[in-house]
Specification:
The complex is a heterodimer. Chain A is mainly β. Chain A is built from no helices and 12 strands. In chain A, strands 2, 5, 6, 10, 11 and 12 form a 6-stranded mixed sheet that branches. Chain A has a 4-stranded antiparallel sheet with strand order 3-9-8-7, with no helix packed on it. Chain B is globular. Chain B starts with a strand and ends with a strand. The chains are: A mainly beta, B mainly beta.
């Protein structure tokens, strides 16, 4: 079935380091892809999205490109801040099945000052 | 203005009790969802309603019953609560295939 695989965390980085969180997916249809972020004690917030192959989503310095050939949607940021510490979820949406969001397991990011 | 609001934020209850969680969205969306997040942060969809009609019903014990009185509300009722029901429950909404907006979550603790 449709699924999302993310790199395991926690990922611990120093401030201003480069961030990559890998995400790959398996889908039978043509999914839209999303990154959501969950700060401690809060709900999920949409970070960025891409709806078709080669689209690049970007927001708050984060970027991810929809790569159909490698079925990937890796999240990157050039210089992380302590305030970026959170749990990051990669997700795909399957339009053919009630617009269901399927999430990866989440990756905890910890940024040290 | 809160887009998707859930009440209560925290719920502590004893095994065997029945409880409800309420969700309201003011975004005018036509689709609402309930997700469960376990202690390892894993998120899994439970139910989805589109225009008050149930369209997704994942493998969830029938002790869980969603109710959508109108497009803006999706409540979750849980009968005979068990220890394993302890989790954070998130309500979300979306308009067709656009991104989903999530509530702040309800942390349910069954003791």
């Amino acid at each position: 079935g449709d699924s999302v695989t993310q790199m395991e965390g926690p990922v611990t980085l120093s401030e201003e380091a480069f961030l990559t969180i890998n995400c790959t997916y398996t889908a039978t249809g043509y999914p839209s892809l999303f990154w959501y972020v969950q700060y401690p004690g809060e709900g999920l917030q949409l970070l960025l999205k891409a709806t078709k192959a080669d689209d690049k989503g970007s927001n708050k310095g984060f970027e991810a490109t929809y790569r159909k050939e490698t079925t990937s949607f890796h999240l990157e940021k050039g210089s992380v801040q302590v305030s970026d510490s959170a749990v990051y979820f990669c997700a795909l949406r399957i339009k053919e099945y009630g617009n269901k969001l399927v999430f990866g397991a989440g990756t905890i990011l910890r940024v040290k000052s | 203005d809160t887009a998707v609001s859930q009440t209560p934020k925290y719920l502590v209850t004893q095994m065997g009790n029945d409880k409800s969680i309420k969700c309201e969205q003011n975004l005018g969306h036509d689709t609402m969802y309930w997700y469960k997040q376990d202690s390892k942060k894993f998120l899994k969809i439970m139910f989805s309603y589109n225009n008050k009609e149930l369209i997704i019903n994942e493998t969830v014990p029938n002790r869980f019953s969603p109710k959508s009185p109108d497009k803006a509300h999706l409540n979750l009722h849980i009968n005979s609560l068990e220890l394993g029901d302890s989790a954070v429950y998130f309500c979300a909404s979306s308009q067709a295939a656009t991104e989903a907006f999530f509530g702040q979550g309800t942390r349910l603790t069954v003791v």
